[in-house]
Amino acid sequence: xxxxxxxxxxxxxxxxxxxxxxxxxxxxxxxxxxxxxxxxxxxxxxxxxxxxxxxxxxxxxxxxxxxxxxxxxxxxxxxxxxxxxxxxxxxxxxxxxxxxxxxxxxxxxxxxxxxxxxxxxxxxxxxxxxxxxxxxxxxxxxxxxxxxxxxxxxxxxxxxxxxxxxxxxxxxxxxxxxxxxxxxxxxxxxxxxxxxxxxxxxxxxxxxxxxxxxxxxxxxxxxxxxxxxxxxxxxxxxxxxxxxxxxxxxxxxxxxxxxxxxxxxxxxxxxxxxxxxxxxxxxxxxxxxxxxxxxxxxxxxxxxxxxxxxxxxxxxxxxxxxxxxxxxxxxxxxxxxxxxxxxxxxxxxxxxxxxxxxxxxxxxxxxxxxxxxxxxxxxxxxxxxxxxxxxxxxxxxxxxxxxxxxxxxxxxxxxxxxxxxxxxxxxxxxxxxxxxxxxxxxxxxxxxxxxxxxxxxxxxxxxxxxxxxxxxxxxxxxxxxxxxxxxxxx
Amino acid sequence: xxxxxxxxxxxxxxxxxxxxxxxxxxxxxxxxxxxxxxxxxxxxxxxxxxxxxxxxxxxxxxxxxxxxxxxxxxxxxxxxxxxxxxxxxxxxxxxxxxxxxxxxxxxxx
Lengths: 490, 109
Known about the structure:
heterodimer, A: 44% helix, B: elongated
């Protein structure tokens, strides 16, 4: 008799997946009346949850659903070994609107949605077909297709969806979509190959569990995104996934109907390895540069020592003085290289420390006459590169030597003062002064016989700056210069 | 509104049909709320999805007048046109109210 429940032999285990409760209820009522066991799921993700423990004979699947659509759900089910005999029936309004190639994604039959009186017949017909087994192949026609007219709008909707899917499929970055609980509901092919996990296992699994235990807390923390949180990127500290260094770009998707999280996975293993190589290579170069500065300094020191040794054979007082001056000049340059290899960045030296060492060594060199002379250095936080600091150091060397030699005759007491300050962003003012007997009135410092002052004039030119002499209180040389930024010494 | 006839058309018992109608009203009301707010926010896609849901269920249950009205709104919003949809949604809501009223009346019988 029609409508009579069939015997238990004919009882089928059925899963119906549709996001509309009315449709689920209609199908459930219809099939339960026929004596079948029916479970329902409102979307693909819930269906996959049920399929973990339940192996149905037939699954009715709506084509368009949120969180894993029908087409994808079919493909996933077809890849599950234990589901190889399950009969898949696509159930959708879309089927009537477009010639759905349901066999292509693994479904056995396709029913067009419509008024239920017509649909009910199609549902039961498809169920009978399922008895013939999946081996009988696929139905070719959409059942109920002739009842419903074509609808252009949904066709366009579908083609737009296909278009975005094509883009996602061809991207080299892995894209995953997660529910806010962290379950994977979409994966593009790149994400599949990056994780090394087949799509059917990846989908409906927990994103956090893809990672090593040690990383899981961090991943959970990263996933705590809301619409207001800006997207998060872990490029600076990549996570390890499938033995690769992967940066995660996590952004919340606030669709009206369901909130989800998109994760963009980028394999940056090679980039990170290249970065490491560059860093190692840079460290090596820094060591080499330090070594070079060290050797230049040592060689200059040797020259200075040679001059010192040779001066032991010189009897003439004037010649001896020349040896000492040369020795000091060489040392002022050696000191720059010493400061450079001790500096942090190998490019700039802290000029205050340099001046202190330089002048202290000059005082030691002229210790006979420097006993009662005080030193006052006022230089703060100025860093100069080698191109500027060498001429600058030599200028200070000459001017301080001059003061030590001439400003305080006959053991006079006094003070030598060196100040160096930024007077604006670029310009630096250097003043070397003493309160000694004063620079001789009759001598023009720009044209003297003194090698020291001649050197100062030519160094000033090298620094592209000016120098002035103030005789109001002792002697004060004032020069203003800029760091030589663009000039490269050949 | 003759639910007995509608039930026969769809091929189910009247009692079962009323149960389904109740479910239809429940989900339909929430879809209508979504439709209203979508139109207010000028979100055509969201409006089209809500109309699509209403249309599908009405079609299943053989509520053809309601089905045609929902279909009209879906078609228009799919093409990103929102003008007139507020009035059309109001008309749809009135149809839903009539169905709801009839359903309650039938249950009391």
